[in-house]
Amino acid sequence: MKVEKTAVSPTRQEDYPEWYQQVIKAADLAENSPVRGCMVIKPWGYALWENIKNVLDGMFKETGVKNAYFPLFIPKRFLEKEAQHVEGFAKECAVVTHHRLEATEDGGLVPAGPLDEPLIVRPTSETIIGDSFSRWVASHRDLPLLINQWCNVVRWEMRTRMFMRTSEFLWQEGHTAHATAQEAMERTLQMLHIYGRFVENYLALPVIQGEKSESERFPGAVNTYCLEAMMQDRKALQAGTSHFLGQNFAKASEIKYQSAEEKEEYAWTTSWGVSTRLIGAVIMAHSDDNGLVLPPKIASAHVALLPIVKKADDRAMVMEFTQAMARELEGRKYHGQSIVVEVDDRDTGGKNWDWIKKGVPLRVEIGPRDIAQNAVFVGRRDRSPREKESVSRDVFVGSIVSVLDEIQQNLFNRALDFRQEHTVAIGSRDDFYAFFTPKDQQKPEIHGGFALSHWCGNARCETKIKDDLSVTIRCIPFDGDKEGGPCIVCGQRSDKPVLFAKAY
Amino acid sequence: MKVEKTAVSPTRQEDYPEWYQQVIKAADLAENSPVRGCMVIKPWGYALWENIKNVLDGMFKETGVKNAYFPLFIPKRFLEKEAQHVEGFAKECAVVTHHRLEATEDGGLVPAGPLDEPLIVRPTSETIIGDSFSRWVASHRDLPLLINQWCNVVRWEMRTRMFMRTSEFLWQEGHTAHATAQEAMERTLQMLHIYGRFVENYLALPVIQGEKSESERFPGAVNTYCLEAMMQDRKALQAGTSHFLGQNFAKASEIKYQSAEEKEEYAWTTSWGVSTRLIGAVIMAHSDDNGLVLPPKIASAHVALLPIVKKADDRAMVMEFTQAMARELEGRKYHGQSIVVEVDDRDTGGKNWDWIKKGVPLRVEIGPRDIAQNAVFVGRRDRSPREKESVSRDVFVGSIVSVLDEIQQNLFNRALDFRQEHTVAIGSRDDFYAFFTPKDQQKPEIHGGFALSHWCGNARCETKIKDDLSVTIRCIPFDGDKEGGPCIVCGQRSDKPVLFAKAY
After folding, report:
1. B6-27 per-position pLDDT tens digit
2. What CA–CA distance (Å, rounded) separates A178 from A143?
3. Mind telling me how many Å the CA of B95 is from chain A's nearest CA?
């Protein structure tokens, strides 16, 4: 078999984790920084985040959510207010202890001005936002309170991976307060479903929505709901979470209101968030051995125009044709946004491949011979790099929106097919262990997938599987099989299968 | 004289600094947080920042600037790279020294996991971005590099004032690298002029653009340029700065490129920023004794619809009329954005005044009698609260864009008139001292203004005036009088007058 040379090395099959790093590099999305665990998001990567932000922000606002901004620093005593919360976040946080640097005699600088109380760089903002909510809420008329914040958070991480797990990351955190448990629960699920729609319709990633098991809950939550997507190494990636916090944080932060009956009550709160991790999900789910593949609806650019000039005499004519086409394309709308065009006028040979690696949905080569026929030479990122076709310029411009939609749909279908192919209902313990065990332990190839198997609900059985196989319960799905069966570990009765997988 | 009761107390005349705090409170823009020196930006205030961001971001991108994101933390050694820079920022910075909290025997939590090298929470990002630039720039073909970042920064402040000076604030910082000094200087001024256009056309604030004196330069810059606006207490507020950094940071961070002649050269860099301080400027420049006054082009909402229901029977009809009008208004565009409408359907008496205090440009009262005439009762925030008029509903909807533009223009004209009234050319030292000295030292009323006076260029004279009067050179204006004259302090010859003022 002839092995095709690929633009990214190693390939997914050869070394999936390293392939991921190389795609990020080849696409110029981000780089590791000299600051431990922190990354630099480069323009091509940051544009993805801007697009994700714009769409989600609009979806939030349509439901009445308003944006605000709360302090980066959380006083230690605030974090301590909720017992499970501090337990969950104190182990990995950046602690500010001083407020200046002072010169030493040998010319160095040392921390000076010790603070009376250490400050924690926010790992999440329930406690600091709860403090504001305690002042903003007095009467049932102040509820519901629907607030969101776009910001950076820090969770000290020892083993990091760009976009997936970094000490600092960007996210949004929504925080709401309600008069009743029911309303808070409805909001928790409403936001989960918004994430679901966004991830499926914009990131082209099918997700399974469900409830977390107790051990996987957000520290301090009564219940956590999540979206799980399958990556190309068949692992699960949690693409967003929404938490029903009950009255835990309302009691910790004294968020109280006077009811219509003039009784003092604690509010019911929720929180929900997605992060730059979504970019990691897009990379891992859609990219191939030639680099990044971007879903058109959130792509940093939709089309790259590549003027090909071999003779200096042709330059002016080719550039004029290219620029006119760029302007016309930019005037068209794709799902409410202007089409984003990159014109790459460098005089280098490899520019077609540069744009393949960067994952732009459409590449358009424009040379004198194409222009003579009023045509362009088009490559689509959802097809092989070799598969290019000559298209009339006007047809290309006229049909770009539907072609982008087609690419978007193809990526979704491909990801859905892949997930279905690697999702199995497993009834026996032996089959379960075999499914999640690589054949050759020395070179653990891509294996496993999503297993729908029964679980009795006991944390002991969950832990056993985690210890033996590094497999966790990703969620108890809302949809799907409702038939009972014996727990995969202990054989006790379970109501319905849950979703097991290895996970990021 | 009859004193009109005002919605905000104290008035500007009575106590300007306290009036400012009370406007922020009355308009529900922000609140002090329990975290030392940090503020919470509430939804009505944050919407202003979102609008400022959107417009500026578009203006930057039109000039080829791309957004990216760099780490929050700066290793101590990075800050130390540029001598003047560390000098300027080491004295007031948040220092992270530990990466977890650990339980003590008595149940408390103490910082643990000391870091090998302390991290500074970024006060500005020249050094950390310079580190990336040193990798991104290799050849003259990589230049210019035009990057911007929207983020939070921290400068430890002992005396804080919401929006004007807080330990944490939000801003954008642009960072560019160029092959030549001339190109870098052109970019420095290009961005300054963009700020100028934005502040004048969107914030309705006339500005004076110019160069800073040496003592007021950004630490590490070769030259700093700024915009200065006059507040209603006649003090100056610096509304933005743009720095020509020469090769100082390129040398400190090793940003080198190979020239077309294959010689290794240091790049020339710039940086430029505006912050949430612009919101402070808007509040201080336009608001009155009844609260906030928002320029329509960046207003959190353009119009508040206030249905007035006195009889329960009327409710449905009034609400239907109101909602239909809201939808129609929202369908109209104001400078490319949809008109933002707030419908306040609360059954409370004071809602007209609530919206006056919040500074919404247009208030529309809608009662059954108005509806019977297909009319609405309109108040404009650039006029007295008592001046309201009945307008045909259709005329109101049809003319809202031009009315908003008129309000925008009125605010600008008013601010310009005020500044001209309080800007004087002063030639004698005695007059200068008198101008900047309040008549009654015990109760320093609003006094002074902008003085255009000669300065010899010597830091000694500048310091003398600063020590005596707390007056500083705000800038050496680009425009204006070019006539020479004697220095206001020492009498030595100066080329042209400079701008003196007390400042925020």
Report:
1. 999 999 999 999 999 999 999 9
2. 6
3. 5
Positive or negative: CA dihedral B456, B460, B466, B469: negative
Mean pLDDT over the full length of chain A: 95
CB contact under 8 A, A97 and B97: yes
Q: Which of A25, A28, A101 to mutate to test the interface with B (most CBs of B within 10 A)?
A: A101
Q: Would you give the DSSP letter of residue B479?
A: S
- B378: Cβ contacts below 8 Å, ≥ 6 apart: B362, B363, B364, B365, B388, B389, B390, B391, B396
Q: pLDDT digit string (tens) for A141-167? A: 999 999 999 999 999 988 899 999 999
pLDDT of residue B36: 84
The distance in angstroms from the start CA to the end CA of chain B is 33
**The predicted structure's pLDDT at residue B349:** 81
pLDDT at B3 (0 to 100)? 62
DSSP states of A56-101: HHHHHHHTT-EE-B--SEEEHHHHTTSHHHHHHHGGG--EEEEEEE
Say which of B95, B151, B168 has its CB closest to residue A99: B95
CA A409 to chain centre: 19
Distance of alpha carbon A38 from alpha carbon A160, whole angstroms: 8
The residues near A136 (Cβ < 8 Å, ≥ 6 apart) are: A142, A145
Quote the ipTM score: 0.96
**Predicted confidence (pLDDT) per residue in A420-455, tens digit:** 999 999 999 999 999 999 987 766 778 999 999 999
- β-bridge partners, B211: B225, B476
DSSP code per residue over B410-442: HHHHHHHHHHHHTEEE--SHHHHHHHTS-S-TT
What residues of B are in contact with residue A121 (Cβ under 8 Å)?
Answer: 72, 96, 121
**Beta strand B388-392 with B375-380: parallel, antiparallel or unpaired?**
antiparallel
Judged by CB atoms closer than 8 Å, whether chains meet at B73 and A94 is answered as yes
Adjacent-strand bridge partners of B73: B121
Rounded CA-CA distance A212/A190 in Å is 16
Which residue in chain A is spatially nearest to B67 when comparing CA positions? A43
Structure tokens at A216: 């996987």
3-state secondary structure of A499: strand
Pairing status of strand B303-307 against strand B341-343: parallel
With a cut of 70, say whether residue A3 has pLDDT above it.
no
Question: CA B395 to CA B364: how far, in whole Å?
Answer: 13
Whether residue B92 and residue A101 make contact (CB cut-off 8 A), yes or no, is no
Reading the block at residue A224, the tokens are 């956590």
Q: If pLDDT is split at 50, 70 and 90, which confidence band does B350 have?
A: confident
Residue A99 to residue B79, Cβ atoms within 8 A = no
pLDDT at A1: 52
What is the tens place of the pLDDT at every residue in A71-117?
A: 999 999 998 888 888 888 988 999 999 999 998 888 789 999 999 99
Give residues with Cβ within 8 angstroms of B479, minimum separation 6. B208, B209
> Which ranges constitute the DSSP H helices of B212-314?
248-253, 277-286
Tokens 């020469």 belong to residue: B246
